[in-house]
Automatic annotation (TrEMBL):
This is Glycosyltransferase A (GT-A) superfamily protein (DUF2064 family). CDD domains: AdoMet_MTases. It comes from the Bacteria. It holds the Pfam family DUF2064. Gene3D superfamilies: Spore Coat Polysaccharide Biosynthesis Protein SpsA, Chain A (3.90.550.10), Vaccinia Virus protein VP39 (3.40.50.150). SUPFAM superfamilies: Nucleotide-diphospho-sugar transferases, S-adenosyl-L-methionine-dependent methyltransferases. PANTHER family: GLYCOSYLTRANSFERASE, SLL1095 PROTEIN. Transmembrane segments: none annotated. It comes from Kribbella hippodromi.
């Protein structure tokens, strides 16, 4: 390619618009950061490869990720086949052109340094059935328009089209695209020196806890909680129960509620749904957008908001619930109890699911672990038993009125008094 043009077909790495398939495990911001790193790796390789011109055909706006030595041309056309055809037409200067994407950051410069002698086109396939590069001596819309894109047979179809036009095609080695979390993990393991690989390793061990909780609720992976020391936290390792309908113990707890009811940390909404089915006005609040979505999809009411923020009906709730160990939210049970006292009416109830160990009073961060290999940053949390919770309640105007339990779960009901 010494006398030709190298083209990089790229999309500005904006969260929510790139690498959406990575979002089954990563947040939109993290997926965009991986896309940006992949693009930088690709541009770095193209910059080292022999060529007369280097052009980025871009959807979006260039940013600090764009190195010197590249021209920028905007993409045009609707489907990918039209945008590819337009890229070749807009860049053509009478010399051969080789176009690559931004999804194979492991690309080596020597792969791009071949000689065109005896060939009219170049094609490099990917393991998922697509292709990572396409080269043409000159633009020809017939070579691209109508070829099905983003399928598991796009590469084969593209090769058939080139051959049907009578073109002599040089095949380059098959590479693996970075499209899915599994692809990203493979890339990081096989090519650890890449920028995208280094970022992947950082993200694997510093995930936002909310991202892993969203992943668990979405069913893409199982998530467990441990202390910093690696010991499991039982009350946070029962997502299957959280996602199931309210069970007998849940219903027993709800029979003590006085409406309307506020469920703090409602998760996927089993409690709020059960209350609604009983005809009791109830609202769930959660910091997880997916949890709120799952709750509302069940026909119950939920709000995406942390408990510390202003909430509807402050001082007028009949009951406030802290089920499933949610007394641990924030790592300060006394602070959370005082907030609950602000939310209930003057004679309202606060029902807390506590640890079965009456004396447990532990404020220690937890770490979430995903079966996909991700680990969260520490999350402030607390675990308290009945006796410890009563001690915390001494500093509020909440007073215990009932301590009850089942073989595996324990609860404490408190009433606000003047």
């Amino acid at each position: 390619m010494t006398g030709g043009t190298l083209i990089v077909l790229a999309k500005e790495p904006v969260p929510g618009r790139v690498k959406t398939r990575l979002q089954s495990e990563f947040t939109a911001v993290e997926a965009a950061a991986l896309a940006r790193a992949s693009l930088v790796d690709t541009l770095s390789t193209v910059r080292r490869a022999p060529a007369a011109r280097r052009v980025v055909v871009l959807e979006g706006d260039p940013g600090s990720w764009l190195p010197t030595g590249f021209e920028v041309v905007g993409q045009r056309g609707g489907g990918l086949d039209e945008r590819l055809a337009g890229a070749f037409e807009d860049v053509y200067d009478g010399t051969p052109m080789l176009l690559v994407g931004m999804d194979t950051p492991q690309l080596r410069a020597e792969l791009l340094g071949f000689r065109w002698a005896g060939y009219d086109a170049v094609l490099g396939l990917t393991e998922d059935g697509g292709y990572w590069c396409l080269g043409l001596l000159k633009p020809d819309r017939r070579a691209l328009l109508g070829v099905p894109m983003s399928t598991d047979h796009t590469g084969r179809d593209q090769l058939r089209r080139l051959l049907a036009l009578g073109l002599r095609v040089r095949m380059l080695p098959t590479l693996r695209d970075m499209d899915t979390p599994r692809d990203a993990a493979w890339l990081a393991a096989e090519f650890p020196g890449l920028r995208v690989s280094r970022l992947h390793r950082r993200l694997q061990h510093a995930a936002h806890p909310g991202a892993l909780f969203e992943q668990a609720l979405g069913g893409t992976a199982r998530v467990v909680a441990t202390g910093i020391d690696g010991r499991a936290v039982p009350s946070l390792s029962e997502l299957d129960r959280w996602s199931a309908p309210a069970d007998e113990v849940d219903r027993l707890a709800l029979s003590r509620c006085e409406g309307p009811v506020l469920d703090i940390g409602c998760g996927p909404g089993r409690i709020v749904t059960a209350l609604a089915e009983r005809g009791i006005a109830a609202l769930g609040v959660d910091v997880s957008p997916r949890a709120v979505s799952l709750t509302t999809s069940r026909g119950a009411a939920a709000l995406h908001r942390p408990v510390q923020d202003p909430l509807p009906g402050e001082g007028r709730w009949g009951s406030v619930l802290l089920m499933d160990g949610n007394i641990g939210i924030g790592g300060a049970p006394g602070v959370l109890l005082r907030r609950c006292a602000e939310l209930v009416r003057p004679d309202g109830l606060v029902l807390v699911e506590v640890d079965p160990d009456d004396e447990l009073d532990e404020a220690a961060p937890i770490v979430l672990h995903s079966t996909t290999g991700r680990r969260s940053t520490p999350l402030p949390w607390a675990r308290v038993g009945t006796h410890a919770l009563i001690r915390h309640a001494h500093h509020t105007n909440l007073h215990p009125i009932e301590d009850w339990r089942t073989p595996h779960r324990a609860f404490l009901t408190l009433r606000r008094t003047s």
